[in-house]
Amino acid sequence: MKTLSEKQALIKLRALKNDFRTLIKQTYEHRAKDCGTCETKGACCLDAHFVNVHITQLEAGLIRRELEKLSPAKQSEIDARIAEAIEKYELKPDGDTFAKTFACPLFEKGAGCLVHAVKPVPCIQHACYERREDLPPDELQTATEQKIERLNEQTYKKHPRWLPLPIWLQSQNRER
Fold this sequence. Notes:
By secondary structure, the protein is mainly alpha-helical. The chain has helices spanning 6-27, 43-46, 57-67, 72-88, 121-125, 138-156, 165-175, and strands at residues 32-33, 54-55, 107-108, 112-113, 128-129, 163-164.
């Protein structure tokens, strides 16, 4: 397996997500409710009984780079929200991490997703569809996540850990 530098992998990851976003937008999103017209903007992102987005180390690095575009004060505010989410929802890096749900600390009322350009694959795929048959097939998300796993393996030389988004982001914050 060809080794990738983290910089190369992040470029490939961004392109992979852009391709996935384009596919979802062109093929499925026209059947979904427009987020801009939603009566409860952000409800799906802030629903602590629904959100269970897991990411890899490489994705956390890409999200961190996106957050670094914000002011230091805003970054500190977001880091505090990440820590609060971990504590409030008792998120841990071990055990059955998929059993826990949380409100996304990266969604801000009035602004939306603070990392929209690089948001996780489940977030790209999610939309409010009225009919089940209009949903993108789960296989699309699975196939894209498998490609993300390969990028992680090429970069870090180990099978990636999928952890709740706040856990990986806090870990990346400590490395800065």
